[in-house]
Design goal:
With about 100 residues, this protein is α+β, with helices and mostly antiparallel strands. It has one domain. Helix content is about 20%, strand content about 35%. The strands form four sheets. It has a three-stranded antiparallel sheet, with no helix packed on it. A two-stranded antiparallel ribbon has the order 2-5. Strands 3-4 form a two-stranded antiparallel ribbon. Strand 7 and strand 8 form a beta hairpin. The longest helix has 15 residues.
Length: about 100
């Protein structure tokens, strides 16, 4: 039983300790047929050293659009933040999640 718990603990630790480079490379993308609503007007908080404003955006949950509020996120040295975007191509709308890009 102790060996099994040790193995499970090791596996859990390995899945939690994902390198930052792998996390930075993961970008959410999907397509929908219905256009997103116009962006909401947000109060942008004053900038602080070491932090970046992540603007709010419309996310599609598979049935409808849901607004995700903007927030302040910790900056990543040597990277720039690319905000969430919706792009209209043909008859579909394509979402690309916000992510950090190498400078």
């Amino acid at each position: 039983m102790k060996v099994r718990n040790a193995i499970l603990s090791s596996l859990l630790a390995a899945t939690v300790a994902v390198p930052a480079a792998v996390q930075a490379a993961r970008v959410i993308e999907y397509e929908v047929e219905v256009a997103p609503p116009p962006p909401r007007v947000e109060v942008v908080l004053a900038p602080r050293a070491g932090y970046t404003w992540e603007p709010g955006y419309w996310q599609h949950d598979g049935r409808q659009y849901v607004w995700v509020d903007g927030r302040i996120v910790e900056s990543r040295e040597g990277h720039r933040y690319i905000p969430h975007t919706w792009e209209h191509r043909g008859e579909h709308w394509y979402f690309r999640g916000g992510h950090w890009d190498d400078d």
